Structures are given as C-alpha cells and as structure tokens.
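Collaboration report, partner site 2.

Our partner group contributed sequences for two proteins of shared interest, and the home lab folded both. The records are reproduced in the order in which they were received, starting with the first partner submission.
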Amino acid sequence: MPVLLIHPPAAKPCEPPPGLARLAGALAGAGITCRVWDAGLEGLLYLLRLPLPAQDTWTRRAVKNRQTNLAALRSPAIFDNSDRYSRTVKDISRVLASHAALHGAELTLADYSDNGLSPVCSRDLERAAEQPESNLFYHYFSLRLREMLARNMPRVIGFSINFLSQALTAWAMMGFLRREGCRSAIVLGGGLITSWLRRPGLPQLADGLADHLAAGPGEALLLRLAGCSEACADACLPDYSGFPLDEYFSPGRILPFSAAAGCYWAACSFCPEQAEGNPYRPLPIAAAGAQLRELVRLHKPRLLHLVDNALSPAFLKSMIENPPGAAWYGFARVTPELQDEGFCRQLRESGCVMLQLGLESGDDGVLAQLGKGITAAQSARALSALHRAGIGTYGYLLFGTPSETGESARRTLDFTAANSRYIDFLNLAVFNMPVNAADAASLATGAFYDGDLALYTGFEHPHGWGRSQVRRFLDREFKRHPAIAPILRRDPPFFTSNHAPFFIRP
C-alpha cells in the first residue's frame, strides 16, 4: 500500500468525498497502489453501534430505532413524507450527540467540536495531536490505523481536510501516527488546508506532524512522492471503487464530481475564491462529460452531485447535448440561458433535477456592489423559467454585506416573497468578511473570533447594519413572512442541499 488517503471525521455522511476519488484516480492511472478510507462515514457508523447508558425518553427511543432509522434513510420511500424524514434524521443525530456529550464533545450529522478546543487555534490543534486519546473518535481510528499499519506500512499518508469539523480529529490522527512511530510521509490537503495556506500571516501549521502541505489540487504532489511522473494527472477518471457506496446516509448512491476547480466568474467581491486567488482550472468539456458517463456506467448512481463553484454555460450546454445518464444537480449562476424556459426544459430532459443559485440579494445596488453581474429581475426570470421547466431551485441569500442597508435587506425580503412560488429551498447566510478580501482594507476591522487560523475578520459595517441588526431582522421579519416561512421549513435538517433533490417532484 504505497499510498493511504484519509477523509477524517466528521463531515456529512451522505456521499463519498470527491477530492479523494480524484486523487485515487490519478494514482490508479499511474499504476500506484492506493487505499481510500472514509473515516468520516465509518466513524459515525462506529458510534451508532456502541451501547449507550440509560438516557431520557427521546434518546432511548432513538437508540432502540437507530438501525431501523438508518435503513429508512437509505430508502427512497421516506422522502415522500417530510415529517417522517425529519424525525428519522433528528433521531439518528440524537444518538450521535448523546455519545459525544458523554465525552464532553458536541456532534451532529453535520458538525463536530471537541472538549473546548478550537480548530482555528494552532495551539489547540497541537493539543489535539499531543493527546489523541482525548478525541471522541480515538478508539475507532486507533484500532483501524494499527490494523492498516500492521498489514502494510504506506509510503505516503494523505489527509483531505475540507471542513473545520475535520481538523481536530485529523490532528489527533497525525499525533497518534507519530506516537506509534509511523515513518510514512504525511501530506495535508483539501479545501480548508488550501484556505489556510493562502491566509496572510499563517503560523506554523502541523510542524513535526506533516511533511507536506498541498494548496489546491494535490495529484501532482502525491504522484511525485510516490515516485511517478505527474503528467496527465487531471485526465484520470475519479476512482470510487474503494468507497462503501451503499453505506452512505442517502436513498441510493450519490456520486460527487468536479468539472472545474475555482470559479469561471471569479468577480464576486464577497467570495473566498477571489480573495484567495484560486485559479480557474476546468477539465476539457468533452473529457468531463465522458468521465461523467463512464462513472454512471460503472457505479449506477441515483444522483450526480456536480460540486463546481459554478457550472459554466458551456458545460450546461454540453450536458444537454450529451446527457450523463443519471439525475444531477449543482451550482449555477443566473445567466441568459437560465432565463430561457426552452433551455431549462432541455436541462431537465438531460437529468437536471435541481440547481443551486447564488441570488445573494433582491436589491440591484447591492448586487452591483457585490460584483454579481446580475439584476433582481434577471434572477426572477431564471427562477420562473426553472420552475416551469420542472427543475427545483435552492436559493442562497447573503445578508450584512458592506453595501447592504436595512432598506435593501427589506427589498430582498420583498423579492423573495414575490418569487416564493418558484423557490423550493432557501439558505440564509450572514456575511463573513474573508481576512484577505479587498474590501477589508477600506473598513475598520477587528477579531471575528479568537484563533490565529481564523479565515474571517470582524468589521465595522459602514451603514450600521451589523450582525446583531441583521440577525434581528432575519428572526423577526424575514423568517416570519407567510410566503417565506414554508420554504424555510422544507429545508432538510442537517443534510440541507445534499438531500434536497430527493424531495423535488416533477
């Protein structure tokens, strides 16, 4: 086993991690033996099997029904009843939370925090590595790592860390490996590591634990460490054969796929992609389509999750011309094509069941300041065209940006209410200012939260529309609007957009 690739706990357990599949495909294409380990999924399944001491009535019921609930979540039938779905998911999460509480930690199906340690504090990460046995998942990962190392010491061990909820356990796993005398080269990569490496003033990260840190795609580095040419790394088919595809918490196989790194638009002032300077690196459209069709042939997924920051119009047209052969969804910008009902109907015929749209605001002045390149009227036309074509919409709204005022936020409320019949799901976010955003230089800034690895900075809002005012508006006005409240109630708990396509009815 020259290379072991690890997806550490905890992350949503609804689909395999696309980054590891892409890395595994590049290694397999070069003839390098590779093992992938979704410890995030396995760690949650491990906890769900453990006994729990006597608890309250809800927890006792959740423990008694945990396997029945898990089987139900893997069945399409439960998505016909949103109330039953919600109870099932919350019961499963209740069992996990109860285990974590006994350990002094907090765990849900979507997040994890442990013993008061902060993943954005480098000293806390060091503590997690120094005392791996204090981690909630220690008994699970220590047994599995010992088994793997006893069979065959890998030349390289790669950790893919995309979320803050994974960082503390990843450091604990690295600390355990070094304590056990593991001599493998350890590589850290993934979206979170990339963001940290592009953060100004980065402190020492994983010093004495990791040998290499990868910003952006890690195929070339892993191929080089494995002693192989890095040519054609991007052209290889993602390899999902090593993942337990039927054990994820979803009603059928979901295959995530990335047709491009970065964003083709890359002009939104609030976006970390722009702040971090991540380049746009698309696969050739024909190659991306061919890979999708081959993955469908090999694995028979129920759903394809296109994880690009924004699917380009050219890629969407290619999906119409050469459908992948399975239902699919992903993020897209509001473009002229999506305002054309005929184009949207062709997308639906290609298998598109839902599109995630970064609407951000219903105020044209705010949209212009954000660099969105769209107007509220164009967003409304796209929402209507998609709805009429039978494609679900998951809208994203962003409040508290430097250009927003209370009045413009209420225009967003009016826009949302006026178009509510065309919106299936909504995500409401309060703006976080990236530490390296261009806007930060012109504003009075301060600590967002303690931690030398924080990716965001606090700022003094130029119009007095601060986070507390925004949250008060959302809680007292926006969420209570009779046209908007039903949309928010439809959002699948914990899994949100990952499970939303299963609720879309043609």
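Second partner submission, folded after the first:
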Amino acid sequence: MIYPIKTVPVFKQYIWGGNTLETKFGKNIPDGFAAESWEISCHSDGLCTVANGEHKGKTLREVVFSNPAQMLGKDNADEFPLLVKLLDAKDKLSVQVHPDNEFAAKHENGELGKTEMWYVVDAKPGAVLVYGLKEGANEKMLEEAINNGTLEELLNYVPVKKGDSFFIPAGTIHAICDGLLIAEIQQSSNTTYRVYDYNRIDKDGNKRPLHTQKAVQATKYDFSHSCSDAGKTEMIDGGTMKILAQCEYFSVIKYDVETEIEIQKPTSKFEMLVCTEGKAVIKYDDGEEIITGGDSFFIPAAMKNYRICGLAEILRSFE
C-alpha cells in the first residue's frame, strides 16, 4: 500500500541540547532532554521506525528497500540518500566541518559526505551562528588558530532570526549557537570533524575529542558567504511557497499553508515533509493523514499528487 508514512524519530542526547522539542512540539524525549531528533532517517546511527498504517512498527529502511522502485523511484537503490533532523541548541554546538563525498570515501570507509541546509524554526533575540571563516582565511591560518586557541577570532558570525535559511556545503566551517531551534535537511551521513568545543567537558568530566588534521584538510577556503539560494516568497493557491535550497543532493521548499495547497508530485521521486508550525491534513487518493508541528512524513515515489489542507508551515524536501 502506498501512503504517507509517518516516522518515529530517534533522539540524541548531546551536551548542548535542551527541552524545546518537548515544550514546543510535545515530543516524548528521554529524561526531558534532547539535542537532536532524527526525523526521517535510514542511517544505521539513527534508524527511524514507522508510526502509522500497514507498515507500523517496521523500520523505515525495511519498508523502503522492500520495494525501492515504489518507495524511492529507483529499481536498484542500495542507500537512502537524505536525512531530516530537528536540533534544539540550548547551548552552543562545537565548531565543526563535514567532508565532501570524495574526502569521506577516502577517509571514512565509504561514508557519504555531508552537505546540509538549515531552516531556523525559532530563535532567541540576538541569536547568532557561525557561517564559514572570515574572508581571506586559509589553511595555515586555520591550523594556527586552532593550535593557539584563537579560533573564535577567525570565525564568521552572522545574526539569525526565525525564518532564516542557510545552505552549508560540505567543507564549510560552521556552528549553531545557543537559543536556536533548527530544521536540518542533509545528505545521509554522520561524519563530523570537530574543530573547537569551547573547552567543555561532558557528564563524565572529559573533553570531547577534536579532529584537527582532518578538519583542516576537509575545509574549503573559497566559501561564499551568501546565506543561501533562497528564492522570493511566491503566492500560490491556498498559501505561499519559497524555495530555500537547491543543490545536486536535495531541494527544499517552504510552504505556508493558509487553506489548501496542491503538491504536483512526480511519481519518480520520493519526498519528505516536516511540519514546523501549525496543523494540517495530507489528503491523497486513498485517504488522509494529520500532520502537526514536529511531525514528519516520508512520501513514497509512487504516490501521486496530494493536497495539504489547514494552517501550517511545511518544509518539503526531495532529491
């Protein structure tokens, strides 16, 4: 049966997390504390299960690869290419960088690289994040700054507000700072090189390891500081839409649904939906599913056009 598949997230408890996923979205987070919610994932480090319908209780990987032609639009697919997360940054994340596909294949046992994008679901007043290095920075400057403890002077800080989006190509030095709730769409990879962690210690009294040499090698120093390729907001029947990111790995479109919008969906591609605010109903040929703030759905490739009805903010992503 082809239907919108609601996923059960996997929670990650890192030292910078908080309780916003529970207070804003009502998620049942462990111990009232979580940093990340892996919303749609077939990655072995955080494998989602199915919450609804015929496939309830199965892993998303089991369902997807039981029929990759119907689910992914590919007869011989052997990997799920994307991953969707929600991140609650009560404290600052480490300054980090992700490798590209070529570097990861060589140094990380064939793991994918990690290009990603961020959508700011919420932000405290005065919030900032790290978006690349200052203009003119090079490999020698980065390595020296890491070694002599002056890295923060080399970082490019940008102000952040609710509704902003950022495209983070692999090789970009970056960090989410405190007071931010972020939706992240990325390649399906969990490879991160930690550059700087503010000399913090974990619950066991240990500093988290750094990955200086790989980070310096993986960083790209010709990074453009344009925030994203986000388009202008366009009026459509039933609401508005805005393209947030487009690259070789994914496209992300934000919809502000005011009444009812129709998604013209090719049957050769799967899609992923995450609701960042409000409540709506996904209506398709064989039925309907409710989607509320914090919910995520995998839309199989074989599913045809569908409608989203209600009052909600929805991120739609696809290859």
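Feedback sent to the partner group on the second submission included the following. The chain has two domains: 5-218, 234-318. The chain has six helices and 21 strands.
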